[in-house]
Structure formats: structure tokens, C-alpha cells
Design brief:
single chain, mainly alpha
């Protein structure tokens, strides 16, 4: 009886380790982008088997990217004594890399049941995420551009199942700039931990140069956020929600100027969440 309880507890711990590897919250955010991109093509909320395949495909590819990131970050995570499952030994490194490639493969197989374009986007970003973790992790100032491009392409991937429309591209552009700004702010916040392990923008440029570059990205996100309104998409709800999102971005930029990277990053997240609501309003 005692042995059964032990095995059950171990199984739960291992299962929890696999869940932690894929960082499900990040994967779910990617799925929301796919859902928005797909539905915008139809001009409203739309759900069918193709969307289900697309959602599962992006969940797998996102999860594979997170898992392989842990594999290549193992030594750094071990030195920093993080609570990641590979470091704790809940999941072995060998199992972690196999799990990652299995997720990538499953994601590409699911995408193959969609359009040809959707399949090649899935293949491209699977390869890019593998290369990022294997070769570009240390040059993080390049890697964060790839990560931000991946965030923007969740909308494009969703639309590619049917057809990529101008509106989908219009919402992908500010998402790219906002996420790029957020990644730089995260690097500012993690400067001490990254030193000696990864090359980030705060290490290459002076403090004020990094800030002004980030402000430029905020500005690009704010301006391009109004593209759907400029070109006549949506009603009053979209510009109102985007304006609220942009106010939060401006607040985040102000906090960055005051050297409060943690609070700045937190507000960028909030601004991006309001931005998602704005995008959802285009379907109502």
C-alpha cells in the first residue's frame, strides 16, 4: 500500500515536470493568437476542426521550443539553482530533448493537415526555435527578435489556414514591436543573471542607448496599433481599447526611464493583454 502511494506521487511529480517543461501559459497565449488570426479571416468568432488542429499544432511547437530551451540552458539553470524540472532531475536531460523533438514533430504533423502555407510556417519556426536554443541563446540580443517574430506569427499562422489578410498583418506588426520591447526590458531586469552567460543589448549598449531604443519600439507599437482604425476596420471599441493599451505602454516607458525594469515589464504585459482584448473586439 505504501509502495503504491509512492509510485503515484512520483508519477504526479514526473507529469508535473513535463507540464512545467512546456510552460503551458506561454503556449496558451500562442493559441489565443492563432484563434484571433483564424477568426479574423472569417470576420467573427469561428471554430471548426481546422482551428482545433491549428491550436494543437502551435501548442506543441511552443511547448517544444520551451523544452529544448531548458535542455540547452541546463548548465546555466544549474549554476543559478533554478527550480526547472531538468535541474531538479524530475525529467532527465535525454528525456527532455526527446520530448521536445516529439512535440515539434507532432506540431508539424498536425499542421500538415491544414494548408501548405501553414505547414511550412510550422516547419520554419520549429527549425528556428531549435537553432535559437542551440546556437543563438548566448547572443540573446538576436534571439529576442526571433522570439518576438514568433509571437507575431501566431496570428499569421492562424490566418494561413485559410488566407492571410491585411487585417491580420496589421495586428501582427504592433504585437512584434511590443514583445520586442518587453524582451529588452526583461534583459535589463535580468542583467546580473545573464552576465557571463549571454550577450544582451544592455551589455552591448550604454544604459541611455538601450532605453531610447526601447522607447522607439514602444513608439512603433503605439503607432502601428492604430493601423486597423486608419484603414477602416472595426468600430469604436478597437481604438478605445488600443488607446488604453498604449497608455499602459507609455507608463511602462516612464517606469523604465526611472530604472524600474520590473514594474515596466509588468505593465507591458498588462498593455499587451488589453491589446488582445482590442484585437478580439474586431470580431464582435
Amino acid at each position: 500500500m505504501i509502495q503504491t502511494k509512492t509510485n503515484s506521487r512520483n508519477f504526479k511529480e514526473i507529469l508535473g515536470g513535463f507540464v512545467q517543461l512546456v510552460r503551458p501559459l506561454n503556449a496558451i497565449m500562442s493559441m489565443i493568437g492563432v484563434f484571433i488570426g483564424y477568426s479574423l479571416v472569417y470576420g467573427g468568432f469561428h471554430f471548426d476542426i481546422s482551428l482545433l488542429y491549428a491550436l494543437l499544432a502551435v501548442f506543441c511547437i511552443s511547448g517544444g521550443g520551451q523544452a529544448i530551451n531548458d535542455y540547452f540552458d541546463y548548465e546555466i539553470d544549474r549554476k543559478q539553482k533554478t527550480n526547472r524540472p531538468l535541474v531538479k532531475g524530475v525529467v532527465s536531460r535525454k528525456t527532455g530533448i526527446i520530448f521536445s523533438f516529439a512535440l515539434f514533430a507532432l506540431g508539424m504533423v498536425l499542421a500538415s493537415y491544414l494548408s501548405e502555407l501553414a505547414f511550412w510556417i510550422a516547419v520554419f519556426f520549429s527549425i528556428l526555435l531549435i537553432l535559437y536554443s542551440a546556437l543563438m541563446q548566448k547572443i540573446k540580443f538576436v534571439g529576442i527578435v526571433i522570439v518576438s517574430l514568433g509571437v507575431a506569427f501566431t496570428f499569421v499562422f492562424g490566418a494561413s489556414v485559410v488566407a492571410i489578410t491585411p487585417l491580420v498583418l496589421m495586428i501582427a506588426i504592433p504585437a512584434f514591436f511590443a514583445n520586442w520591447a518587453r524582451e529588452i526590458v526583461k534583459d535589463i531586469e535580468d542583467a546580473a543573471e545573464d552576465k557571463g552567460h549571454k550577450i544582451t543589448l544592455p551589455q552591448l549598449l550604454k544604459k541611455n542607448q538601450v532605453q531610447w531604443f526601447t522607447f522607439a519600439l514602444f513608439g512603433a507599437a503605439i503607432v502601428t496599433g492604430y493601423l486597423p482604425t486608419i484603414f477602416g476596420f472595426g468600430d469604436w471599441k478597437y481604438p478605445v481599447l488600443v488607446t488604453f493599451s498604449n497608455i499602459v505602454f507609455i507608463l511602462a516607458a516612464h517606469q523604465l526611464m526611472k530604472n524600474n525594469a520590473r514594474k515596466s515589464q509588468s505593465n507591458i504585459k498588462k498593455g499587451m493583454m488589453v491589446g488582445l482584448l482590442a484585437q478580439l473586439s474586431l470580431m464582435i
